[in-house]
Amino acid sequence: MRTHRPPSPEDFVGRLAASPCCAAIVGDEHLEAALASRAPILFILRGNGLELAPVVQRIHDAGKLVAVHLDLVDGLRDDHWGVAWLARSGVDAIITSHGQLISVIRDEGLVAIQRLLLSRRSHLDTAVTAISRSSPHIVEVLPGVILPKIAHLMPRFRSPVLAGGFVRTEADARAVLAAGAVGVTTSTAALWALDGG
Amino acid sequence: MAADIKAARMPAVVGRGAPIELPQILIADDGREPFQPQSGLQAGRLFRDTDLPTLIARVGTSAGPLAVDIDTIRGLQTDDAAVDFVIHRLGIGIVLTRRPQTAARVAQLGRLALLHIMAFDSTGIARSLDGHPRVAGVGTVVSPGLVLPYMHPSEVEILPRPILAYGLITDPADALACLELADGVVLRVDAAACLAAWYRGAETVVSGRAREPQSQSRRKLLTTVAGQE
């Protein structure tokens, strides 16, 4: 049963302004460090999706928000029932690469984050068209570290852009933010204290 | 534009030959524009995002090392029959694929297979490598190639060689940075032209002043370009 009220997309993005580095959690060992960090939002990219509710509660108790990657956690199918399950678990946002799930996530009152996987220039147009159609609250670009080098190839999205993947140094993070991202997702704990300045 | 299969000049059946070497540069050819070889670059040609008749027609007029991204050829399955066809009938020596079984078949036939791994984040690399056959003759395509210089050395070390950097490499400097770690890069024609021009300029600077230290891969490419002129 859900007692936590998810933030609006504007509030979610607002949390990033002061502290733009989000903690990407890819193992249990990351969770404690992330809870103690300045990271405003924890992105859960691994683990058992069926047993997330206690973890979500701990994250909320620490005053942080939580986004879960539906396509990557174990135990859940990436369909509308999987979305509903995560909503019941109390998460604030759901990440997926599947554009058809974005409206389902919105309907659950959660922040919808769609992943844009950058592989080739010729695939970019197709992906961008798909994102324009699905209209997520936030677009997460991977691998984010190359965003400064390909910014000239990217269209101007209506949604704010997060960048994740291989962002490991403060210089990488600053460059990504300077290229237009509102935030960075990283599993490098040293970056979780990065301020927005 | 689709080509007429009957009119296409199909190469004769090709037998098992010497081990295939990956060229440092593969220039992408999607069959839509007349292909422009880059003077000065000793490059191979990568057929991708086209259809089977066009592939056959283009192969018939090609020279130099040939590669195909087999999963992107419309009309072509990625099974053993398709692999046998591109290798034995078309004479293509390098096959890129996302399917480990297809890669294994290419290696079995004595040609070079390159298996795509998706390098979107550090954890994805390990997951992507799970299905790699890890046999001789099967290397790796890092996609997108532009990310290669940002990967940790330990992440590059675990990639079976040869390594081809493929995707979003538009700048000569990025191509060279990738070649420090990879055995080859895929470039569009415009980027290859830039690289050829850039290197012709670099060669003049280096021979004139002999100041800039050149890495082994840069020296090798530079020598290649100079030797063509």
How would the global form of chain A be characterised? Answer: globular
| Separation of the first and last Cα atoms of chain B | 34 Å
Largest sheet, strands/sense/barrel of chain A: 8 strands, parallel, barrel
Query: What is the number of domains of chain B?
Result: 1
Radius of gyration of chain A: 15 Å
Q: What is the compact description of this entry?
A:
The complex is a heterodimer of chains A (197) and B (229). Chain A is an alpha/beta fold.
Q: Features of this protein?
A:
A: 197 residues, alpha/beta, TIM Barrel, B: alpha/beta, 8 helices, 16% strand, disordered N terminus
List the helices and strands and how they pair.
The complex is a heterodimer of chains A (197) and B (229).
Chain A: H1 9-18, E1 21-25, H2 28-35, E2 41-44, H3 53-61, E3 65-69, H4 80-88, E4 93-96, H5 102-107, E5 111-117, H6 121-134, E6 138-142, H7 147-150, E7 161-164, H8 170-178, E8 183-186
Parallel strand pairs in A: 1-2, 1-8, 2-3, 3-4, 4-5, 5-6, 6-7, 7-8
Chain B: E1 25-29, E2 44-47, H1 52-60, E3 66-69, H2 80-89, E4 94-97, H3 100-108, E5 112-118, H4 122-129, E6 138-143, H5 153-157, E7 163-165, H6 172-179, E8 184-187, H7 189-209, H8 216-228
Parallel strand pairs in B: 1-2, 1-8, 2-3, 3-4, 4-5, 5-6, 6-7, 7-8
Helix pairs in contact in B: 7-8
